[in-house]
Structures are given as C-alpha cells and as structure tokens.
Amino acid sequence: MTAEAPRLDPLAFDDLDGFRQDDHLAAFRCFERSARALVDGELGARAAREPSGALIEAARAALTSTPTDAAEAQRFFETRFRPFRVATEGKQGFLTGYYEPLVAGSLAETEAFRWPILARPRDLVSFAPGAAPPGFPDGVSGARRRSDGSIVPYDDREAIERERRDPVLWVRDALEAFFIQVQGCAQVALADGTEGARLAHPLEGGETPPLRRRMRLAYDGRNGLPYTSIGRILIEASAIDERAMSLENLKAWLRAAGLGEGEEGLRLMRRNRSFVFFRLVEDFDPKLGPVAGAGVALTPLRSIAVDRSVWSYGLPFWFEADLPWADAAPRPFRRLMIAQDTGSAIVGAARADIFFGGGDAAGARAGAIRHFGAFTVLMPVGDQS
Description:
The protein is α+β, with helices and mostly antiparallel strands.
C-alpha cells in the first residue's frame, strides 16, 4: 500500500517536553511485543505499511536487550531511534481514545439478548486501502465474491443487519453491537446458563449478572465501506455541542432517539455504512489486552492505532497534549506510545487512537478524548526521513 509520505522535521530528544520523566521501561515492554512480530514477519489481521530494514534491526536489538530500569530502556530508544515532529497544516495532530467494552451476552437469542454479532462471511474479500480493483469506488477495502468469481462492493450496514447471517453470539441491542464494532473488540460475559462467579467489576450499564464464562470478540474483517462518524453528524446538526460530545452523551442521545426499526437512533447508526465482523476467542489471558491489527496484545496507555497506509506497526511515537486521561480534568499527557493497531476512522499522518484498556472506567476516559496534540515519530537510525 502507498500513501504520501508526511513531512518530518528533525528534533533532538531534549526538545521533547517531559521525555526524560516518562517510564521508558513500560514503553520498552510494549515495544517488545511488536519486536517479536516484526522479526517473525507476522503481518497481523490488518497489514500496515511494510516495516523498513532499520525498524526490523531495531526490533532484533530489542529482543536481545535486557533493560532492568527506565534509564536503560531510555538509552535503548535514544540509541536506536531519532525523533521527528510530524508536520501538520495549521492545527496540531488529533487524538482520540478507544477501549475494550465488557458486556453481557448469550450464545443463543433470548428475550434479553436480541441483537446478533456476526461472523465473517465466506464471500467477503478484503484488500488494502488504495488497492481496490479497477472500477471500485474510492475508499472501498472489501468486496463480495460471487459464485462466478467476480467481485462487487460489499453490502452496507443496513443490508447486513437485516440479513443477519451467521451470528456468533447475541447482545442486548443495536447500540451495544454498534459500539463493539467501533472499538473493534469486546469481552462478553455469558449471562445464560448456570449460576457462577460474578464479575469483579460491573458490566457497562452497571450490571453484574451471573455468568458461566467469559469470551472475547476478536476483529475478523469488515465490509470495507468508508467509516462515517455519527458523532460528527450530530455535532454538525447541532444536536450535541462539540464541547459536550463524549461516548456517554452519544449513547444517551441514541437511546433517547430509539433503537428499533424505523427509529432515529438506529437510522443514524446506519448512516455509518461500515460494518465489522468478529470471531469468538474462548481461551485467552484476561490480563492481556485484545490482539488487534498488528497481531499483538494491546497495552493500556501505551498502544495506539494509526493510519496503516502511512505508518508501519511497531514505530514509537511521542505525544505532547493536555488530556482528561486519568480523570475528568485535563492534565499533561507526555508519553512514549507504540503503533500496534489501526482503524477505519484513523486517517492521516498526525492522527492516533489511544488504547485505554477494558471496562466502563476505561470507556469513560477513552470517550472523553477528542484533543489536539504534538506528534513526534521515532524513526529508526538508518531510515531516511
């Protein structure tokens, strides 16, 4: 895949506000996960820009390094990388947040669980952005393969939801399913079956139903149609003030507008024609984050999603912004992050989505992030800027 290379302005590490105060050992542990995938040539579920030889060499060095404290880890990054500010037109780069929802669900449709999460269709063909066959609309990255071998753009959200092919499990309603797709992952507590242990913390909505076991929904492809931000639609229609836009307020608006067929909330969600499919993961380590685009487990507040047509997975980024990342009050966010995921809404060189972890508290913090900040990429020594 190709994309216009961003303009990069060289900096020194001393130019990075707060760099020496960060926990570089935590950043190194996150980079290690990407390093293993880079060295093994693992592309992940959503292949990104091909890594350079210098990045792979830095990954090899990480796997043979044994830093025991933040200072040693800092020296690794300062030895193997050089900082470059990502140039932007006028405004700084833009940051948002995402998380892993924790919801109740059922393996069978019930009165309580009526909306399906769907498996990847057998006739779905995926291709990289910009690699659509001749004649396909711009921005399309998926297609349906017909029985005669020809391919056509895949159905949109409304058509897929009406057909309901191959459900893998059921959640409460269309809103819950929609935001699982937006986040690209979820943990599901199966509330059907025999009485069992209860969750250590409430599900979204405050529930703590008895559960038989917990499963994870892992991203398994999308229909490839362009992503549309329904939050942006509401802001432009003056339905929600931009300063008040948050995940919580967006969900409240949709529920009040109605989620049934023909109701405004469902109609609005269907204006985002993009649709995500999932597979069930039964055996997973709940201490690890979900495995995302790069094929590695995500680390809260260290992993980011980037535009995969611009950046390679595994690249470190330094962010300088004031965000409500710890609580509702904006405070300095100066942190070394690793590119390990991507998303349909993450477009452009100075655009990133911060992974906040799992559950309601992480969702509240992630949903409040819509902020500008300075983007600095750490390019491996040996790469040309």
